[in-house]
Amino acid sequence: MATQNHALAARGVLFAVTAIFLCWNLRTNASDASEEAFELDAFQVVSTATRTQRLAKEVPIRTEILAPELFQSAATRDLGSAIEYLPGIRSEANCQNCGTAEIKMLGLGHGYNQLLFDSQPLFSGLASVYGIDQIPTAFVERIEVVKGGASSLYGPGAVAGVINILPKEPVKTSGRYDVSFESVDGNPFFSSVGLFNWSSENGDMAASLYGQYNDSDSVDLNDDGFSEITEKEFYTLGINAWAYPTESGKITFNYSYSWEKRRGGNRFELLPHESQITEQLEHNWHRGGVAWEQGNGSGLTYRLAASFSYVDRVSYYGGVGDVTLPGKDGYDPLAYEEAIEASKLLYGYSDTIRYYFDSLFSSSHGDHYLSWGAQYQIDDVFDEKRDSLDRSLKSDGSLASSLGEDPIADDDYTDIGLFVQDEWMPAQNVTVIAGLRADKHSELEDWAVSPRLALRYASSEDWTWRGSLATGFRAPEIFDEDFHIEILDDPTRTRNAPDLKEETSTSYAGGFIWTPSKFDGKLQADVELFSTKIRDTFHVSDRVFTDADGSAFKQRINASGSSVSGFEANAAYRFSDRWQGEIGVTHVDATFDEAQEVLPGIFERSYLESPEWTGVAQLSYDNDELFDFFLGVIYTGPMIAAREVEGTLNRATDSFFVVDVTLVKHMDIEFSDTNLHFDITLGVKNLFDQRQKDLTSGPNRDTTYFYGPRFPRSIVAKANLSW
Q1: Is residue 465 pLDDT above 90, yes or no?
Q2: Model confidence band, residue 479 (pLDDT cutoffs 50, 70, 90)
Q3: CB-based contacts of 22: which residues, under 8 Å, 6+ apart?
Q4: The pLDDT value given to residue 503
């Protein structure tokens, strides 16, 4: 009943918001159908790498961009599906039952990169475990991605890089409404998005109000009665606002609320604890912040910001296992009831809250541009067992006398970071960046010092060379993936070893950008070599241990060390006013210094589920009078995957070529003296249905033996109305 109420509330709110959009904007006579000129990444203004605005080709640290044009042409619905079109980045599924997914960057998992919203790290704890499917792209101006160590600016965890989601500030009143339908292996996925932009006549205030609703059925890829893709319902409502109270002052505000419920396993008509396997999760996520910026580029400028993120989750990981269900041959009522009594104790409750305070000051001194500031972060993590009546349980499964009496986790972490950065331009064609950051984390006895040095040299108008050295660290706290239980028959969590030390890293990168002037900015090629050396690497073995009270757990330990190195090569070319193409290939060699025990008695040096070769390619045709065409190809090479239940390794999985094709038809419509723009999108994702062929089956299946493309072949139809 609660789910139905949420669904009705979500539909009602979104339809009401849509009606407001239409009624308001039919009066504004504003059109949002203007075209934007094509621009290669190298010639766009970026800010993530240095927290100062520079042309991408003038920044010593490589910055890549995902723009709204890709979101529309590729018919992406969230961050997880959009980010796959960047080379060197994979959006990977981790579990057949609950649909967890993570972003892997240059061979390193999501714990090594930071997700930022407007440069604030708000995606922590539970938000990171399931968050990449909960970030709509409707309000996004662009996504900036910086690969390589960034702890000198953004603190703990920014080892592989950062992904910064930047909202679009409206310059005029406008709106849009999208409705899309996907048939995913014959199962319906529905999505509805509304966006309303408002800007005052004198431009001193602006706001964006957005909402999104998704509803999707579960998908059983191997017809064994157990889902590989979860049943999911999701909605979000949010607002971004900007105000300019003084000539050089700016206030920004943002807030969003998201609700999601997902379920995987089998027998969805039963209560979770009555099925053989169910993973069910219900999330509430509040996120918001406010910032004050002062200065117009001359003299002292500063930015002061405060933000928060709160996520709570009611979960169920369990089921009766291989006990026969009612109505099936071999059903034993007594055995079933006994299994249900144990299964009722596998509910849980978790919440995380993060407060983040940020200050950034900048001033120019001749050839030097200095930036300095401080950041303070507070994380509170809570996790406990509950039963089917929502009562707290002790760690041994007995009933607790009060809520939170014997939680699995109840921890607080703090981190204060002080940083300084100098951007020095001794000549027009040379930029040197030197940065230093010191962090005092509550789990570390000493300060962690993270220096960074980067150099840009433009040997000519066509050639720009870059090199960088960066350091980073991860503190030994509870991590995002610890909130996910992998083995349902005997729920297993991850724990830190008592002597777990912080993980430190040193990253090197070097390469070039070639933007030949004779091509009038239509061609861009770049090559980047990278190497990250990690000391005291965090490693979670698939070996399962058992406490005296019977609780099963895996242990996170410090390995001797590891290294991730390789290269990335990319090219983009604008063939004509209508045709453009991009291609990128990445090679990654990710290994431990010493072989690690990945399964009982099995040792391996290579990172698991880390393919050596990946690649992406895009070809697009833009013609407003006829149609737009998009062809995307995502390549994932063979990798090593662990069969945890069998206790074996698949040392060479299949490789995959995922091909996406879409067509977009544009139409302009006059309605009541208002110019409306209407788009119809039709497409096929994963055209050749590339997917894992050796999925395990049944109630005792290996849910984490799950690799390759996240979704099978899907037929997409989408309608977009903007004004």
Answers
A1: yes
A2: low
A3: 175, 177
A4: 87
Q: Under 8 Å CB-to-CB from 160, ≥6 apart: which residues? A: 105, 106, 107, 108, 112, 113, 147, 148, 532
How many angstroms separate the CA atoms of 159 and 283, rounded? 28
Domain spans in the chain, listed from the N-terminal domain onward: 2-328+337-722
User: Please, which pLDDT band fits residue 148 given cuts at 50, 70 and 90?
Assistant: confident
pLDDT tens, 236-278?
A: 999 999 999 998 999 999 999 999 999 999 999 999 999 999 9
Q: Are 126 and 350 in contact (CB under 8 A)?
A: yes
Tell which residue, 444, 457, 430, has the closest CA to residue 503: 444
Mind listing the pLDDT tens digit for each residue in 411-450? 899 999 999 999 999 999 999 999 999 999 998 889 999 9
How many Cα atoms are found within 13 Å in the side-chain-facing hemisphere of 252? 22
Please name which of 475, 421, 487 lies closest in space to residue 448, comparing C-alpha atoms: 475
Please count the other Cβ atoms lying within 10 Å of the Cβ belonging to residue 389: 8
pLDDT number for residue 418: 96
Q: Residue 72: which H helix or E strand, with range? A: helix 68-73
For residue 361, the tally of other CB atoms under 10 A from its CB is 17
The angle at the Cα of 156, spanning 154 to 160, to the nearest 5 degrees, equals 80
Contact 331, 322 (CB under 8 A): no
In a 13 Å sphere around the CA of 379, the CA atoms on its Cβ side amount to: 23
DSSP 612-645: SEEEEEEEEE--TTS-EEEEEEEEE----EEETT
Q: What pLDDT does 27 receive?
A: 35
What are the structure tokens assigned to 663, written together? 């067509």
pLDDT above 60: residue 7: no
List the one residue out of 463, 448, 393, 461 whose CA is nearest residue 416.
448
Which residue blocks in 442-492 are alpha helix, DSSP H? none
Q: How far apart are CA 639 and CA 374, in angstroms?
A: 41
The stretch 498-511 carries a mean pLDDT of 88
At 322 the three-state DSSP class reads: coil
Decide: residue 428, CB within 10 A, 0-12 exposed, 13-18 middle, 19+ buried. exposed
> Looking at residues 143-153, what average pLDDT do you find?
80
- Its CATH architecture, for the domain 2-328+337-722, is Beta Barrel (2.40)
What is the model's pTM?
Answer: 0.87
Structure tokens at 169: 């500030």
Give one DSSP letter per residue of 1-38, joined into a string: -HHHHHHHHHHHHHHHHHHHHHHHHTTTT---------
The residue with tokens 């609780």 is 551
